[in-house]
Amino acid sequence: MKALQIVKYGEIKDSLAFNEVSKPMVHANDVLIEVKAAAINPIDKLIVLGYLKDMLPIPLPSTLAYDVSGIVVEKGSGVSNFEIGDLVYSRVPQEQMGSIAEFVAVTSAAVSKKPGNITFEEAAGLPLAGLTALQSLEYAGIKANDKVLIHAGSGGVGSFAIQYAKAKGAYVYTTTSTDNVKWVKELGADRVIDYKTEDYKKIVKDADIVFDTLGNNYTLEAFGVIKKGGKVVSVVGPLDEESAKMFGMADYKLPEELTKLVKDREATYKYIFMQPNGAHLGEIKSLIEDDKIKPIIDKVYPFSESVEAFTHLASGRAKGKIVIKIA
Ligand SMILES: NC(=O)c1ccc[n+]([C@@H]2O[C@H](COP(=O)([O-])OP(=O)(O)OC[C@H]3O[C@@H](n4cnc5c(N)ncnc54)[C@H](OP(=O)(O)O)[C@@H]3O)[C@@H](O)[C@H]2O)c1
């Protein structure tokens, strides 16, 4: 089968190649998905650049990407929750990475039927970003009337998180640049802050939750806009001690500056590394089918233009999801 692979670490144009590879093995708990569409996320770019070599070691060459939608064409002997012909979507687990290919095998626990009211391309863009938003906001215990700041509302994660937070009844602040203000407002955000002309730190006060999708200073500044006892969940900031253990860093300590801010604000800080989860994808399916959340697609590329899709991703300016149509 044809697959887009990383052949070495480095710049995108030098490191990706279309290769002919064997179909993946289907183990007892796996379904084999005939891929209709895949989507890419910043993690795929970080893998290519070699930044995650130690954290997420992979053999080279490896087929790329985690997000997939398609049709179940084969299943292992232990799979009872899916049938051949089911239309599904998934965030493929690390050890089965490789959705930019004609087929991908995925443990059935990470798979869900796809929402029935959207296309394969739209469904492929949902799993990684949607699970990230859902798991982060649920960790923070989001509830009706919470004041929530979601950074980068126009990104893949942010555009989903705004809609998820609104579905939960929260009041949503979000940041984006001037060109994106109008359509991000249409996602339901109550106060869209144009970071080119406004300072969010002067607008957001006493937030219950900050969802930090930007890192660096944004992680530290979050403690200046939360209420006492508020929660900061980050998907790009420093690891917390529990997450560090997950990556085998037993002696890791939260940076001092962050420890002090957490203490001063009597706050919670948590780094979230999203986890594949078929049940959570089932919840997302319901939200989509109930029209609570709509998929936001920036651009769909044909399989043959996957490298261009990666270049677009690397710009950091995606408006929603970047999808690759496989078949
Ligand atoms: N830990 C995890 O499990 C996990 C999971 C998913 C993602 N992540 C991380 O989360 C981050 C976001 O992911 P994503 O998929 O949403 O990325 P993305 O779709 O590539 O984000 C692009 C968006 O970020 C916005 N942006 C950039 N700088 C901004 C700023 N200073 N203020 C406000 N918006 C800004 C851009 O809007 P403008 O063009 O308007 O600036 C653009 O729309 C990435 O760093 C990713 O690696 C982590």
Category by helix and strand content: alpha/beta
CATH class of the largest domain, please?
Answer: Alpha Beta
- Estimate the global geometry from the Cα principal axes: globular
Task: Give the ordered list of helices and strands.
Answer: EHEEHEEEEEHHEHEHEHEHEHHEHEHE
What small molecules does this complex bind? NADP nicotinamide-adenine-dinucleotide phosphate
Tell me which CATH architecture of the largest domain applies here.
Alpha-Beta Complex
Largest sheet: 7 strands, mixed
- Radius of gyration, Cα only, in angstroms? 20 Å
Could you tell me the mean pLDDT? 98
Please mark out the parts with pLDDT under 50 across 5 or more consecutive residues, or reply none.
none
Distance between the termini: 12 Å
Number of strands: 16
CATH fold topology of the largest domain: Quinone Oxidoreductase, Chain A, domain 1
- Helix amount: 25-40%
Could you state the CATH homologous superfamily of the largest domain? Medium-chain alcohol dehydrogenases, catalytic domain
> What number of structural domains do the residues give?
2
Number of helices: 12
What proportion of the residues form beta strands (DSSP E)? 25-35%
Explain what the structure shows.
With about 325 residues, this protein is α/β, with parallel strands linked by helices. The protein has two domains: about 1-125 and about 295-325, Quinone Oxidoreductase, Chain A, domain 1; about 130-270, NAD(P)-binding Rossmann-like Domain (Rossmann fold, 3-Layer(aba) Sandwich). About 30% of the residues lie in helices and about 25% in strands. It is built from twelve helices and 16 strands. It has helices at about 10-15, 40-50, 120-125, 125-140, 155-165, 180-185, 200-205, 215-225, 240-245, 255-265, 280-290, 305-315; strands at about 1-5, 15-20, 30-40, 60-65, 65-75, 85-90, 105, 110-115, 145-150, 170-175, 190-195, 205-210, 225-235, 270, 295-300, 320-325. The strands form three sheets. Strands 3, 5, 6, 7, 8, 15 and 16 form a seven-stranded mixed beta sheet that branches. It has a six-stranded parallel beta sheet with strand order 11-10-9-12-13-14, with helices on both faces. A three-stranded antiparallel beta sheet has the order 2-1-4. Helix 4 crosses helix 5 (about 155-165). The longest helix has 13 residues, at about 125-140. The two termini are about 10 Å apart. The chain binds NADP nicotinamide-adenine-dinucleotide phosphate (NAP). The site of NADP nicotinamide-adenine-dinucleotide phosphate has 29 residues, from helix 2, helix 4, helix 5 and strand 10.
